[in-house]
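Hi all, long-time lurker, first post. I run a small reading group and we've been trying to get comfortable going from sequence to structure in the token notation. Rather than ask abstract questions, I figured I'd post a concrete chain and ask someone more experienced to write out its structure so we can walk through it together at our next meeting. Sequence below, copied exactly:
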Amino acid sequence: MLQYKTPLKRLLKMSKVNAACVIIGDEVLNGKITDTNSKFFAKYCYGMGIRLGEIVTIADDETQIVNTMRRISKDYQFIVTSGGIGPTHDDITYESVAKSFNLPVKIDEECKTRMDRISHPEARLDAKGLKDCYRMVTMPSGSLVKNYYVADDLWVPICSIDHKVYILPGIPQLFTRMLTSFTPTIRKIYDLKENDHEYIRFFIKTPQSESQISSYLRDLQNEANTVSNEIKIGSYPHFGLGFNTVSILGTKDNEKFLKDISSRTVTALKGEQISAEQEEEYSNP
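-- Answer (accepted) --
Happy to help. Here is the structure in token form:
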């Protein structure tokens, strides 16, 4: 009989960082653009061993932003927002998030100086346009606020409130680049040692239908729960391809158990183990 870590030992090692992602923008809700930032953030958290508990998409609406931020800040320690920090009338993220924490907003002189040096808005905008441009440097202010500049060629910072909320641009290229560059700081803030809480996942391809495998997977999840509540068993149909896949996800310190149940699942479901790349190809042809 294989011996595995008890739930108590598991809890002492697991990451205690719970994350949430808030996508802000009418353009996402009305279908004008497709949100890719939340998918990137989900993979980012997976790679960091951070438990992502919620992704929420909301409108450019002050009341909705304030209510959402106040709600999720009670349950999550790592909250990232995306979008709503441009110069136009509907870019209200800075003001709304500040209000969520009862903070004022004001022009951040360091950010303004960086903007002037890198972007030279005064050379290309009239007075009215310049005033609107400086809305992007009108940010939450106070002792809880810290701005992180992650690249010399970018004037926009990651604005942090209480080392809990991190306000990022919605432009996917910037969101991805800035969050990636911010990784060492995130590890330091949350005391995340590399590979300490790394997630690992196994995929099994089976010709059996979801109805045929559901009872087995239910029992498998119940068994896994006795080892760690971080282990998640999932099934994914691939319509038209003649097979389904099973996902077995957990943390690296339970690798022995995960490998064992993966091997058993291959046998029980008459399947075969496949790579994450193969699963991605099946899921996103």
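A couple of things your group might point at:
DSSP finds twelve helices and twelve strands in the chain.
The chain has two domains: 16-189, 199-283.
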